[in-house]
Amino acid sequence: MKKNESRFFLLMILAMSLWAGSWVSAKMIASEINPGLIVFWRFLITFVSFLPFLLFKIKKITSPDRRSLAFSLGASLFICLYNILFLLGLKGSLAGKGGVMVTTLNPLITYLLSSFLFRQKIMGDQKTGLFLGLTGGLLLMEPWKWETGALVQSHNLLFLGCAFCWSVLTLMSQQAQKKMHPLWFNSILYGFGTLLMAFFLPREWIDLSLKIPTVGWVNIIYLALFAGTIGAGVYFLAASRLGASKASTMTFLIPVLALLLGRIILGERAEWNTLAGGALSITAVLIINDKIRIPRFQTSD
């Protein structure tokens, strides 16, 4: 590995660590602060952090067209839904488990949605990958723990909703950024997201904001700036030098790091099905993306 390339790998590991840390950070405040209030302040801080970069570049980058703008506004809706489900799920579950479940199921759901919407055929190895992924997802959903009438209240279902929302967000962002600079996209994403969340704030939101303890603000700022602005900035910088293929593979560090940080900071213990389901889902995505090839055994005629 070249010296410059190893430097960007280290930056990529930093970005993955910041993103994995968001699960632990959010877990620490999910039960203490109104979820809508957390998302509102997180989006507002992230939006404000992007503004100086946008204003500095605004004369050098093309303004978004109507199609890109429409996809950006749609993406804002789904990032709002994702964050609300993310926080509600963490109220009743472990940060490490949520980090494994959402980050491993998300690429599988994205692949299925993309195949359905764009009518792409699923080939042999990809079918094997999907089978492994669905098996891993089933283990993560823990159907043996479901009680009659309690499925809707399950945090597992909330995490599944997170993965679905992020998958739709991924597809919309791809369409939006075909003719739109990332600075425009992120500014619109978080700016419009802030406006959407403002409609769902509790009436006493100002008083509630003033009552947020210091540790609460520290975690909100971490989610907004470190996991959001800095994490994304470092990721896209490193990805531009390493290539999309290597960058996408590095995202599989997130579930591992989420489990590790959950253990170190929160004292969480990973259950067998979380480890097994996560491993199967990661293997599935690697197979689907041709990172692992299944050997073919030929018989003599």
What does this structure look like?
The chain has 301 residues and is mostly helical. The protein has 12 helices and no strands. It has helices at 3-30, 35-57, 66-91, 95-117, 124-141, 155-176, 182-198, 205-210, 214-242, 244-250, 253-266, 272-288. The chain is globular and about 50 Å long. The termini are far apart. Mean pLDDT is 81; it is low at 148-153 and 294-301.
Question: How are helices and strands ordered from N to C?
Answer: HHHHHHHHHHHH
The gross shape turns out to be globular
- Can you summarize the main beta sheet? none
Q: Over the alpha carbons, how many angstroms does the gyration radius reach?
A: 20 Å
% residues in beta strands: under 5%
Q: What ranges have pLDDT less than 50 throughout 5 or more consecutive residues?
A: 148-153, 294-301
Structural class: mainly alpha
Span between termini: 44 Å
What are the key terms here?
301 residues, mainly alpha, globular
Task: Give the secondary structure arrangement, pairings included.
Elements: H1 3-30, H2 35-57, H3 66-91, H4 95-117, H5 124-141, H6 155-176, H7 182-198, H8 205-210, H9 214-242, H10 244-250, H11 253-266, H12 272-288
Helix pairs in contact: 1-3, 1-4, 1-9, 1-11, 2-7, 2-9, 3-6, 3-7, 4-5, 4-6, 4-11, 4-12, 5-12, 9-10
Short description:
With 301 residues, the chain is mostly helical. The protein has helices spanning 3-30, 35-57, 66-91, 95-117, 124-141, 155-176, 182-198, 205-210, 214-242, 244-250, 253-266, 272-288.
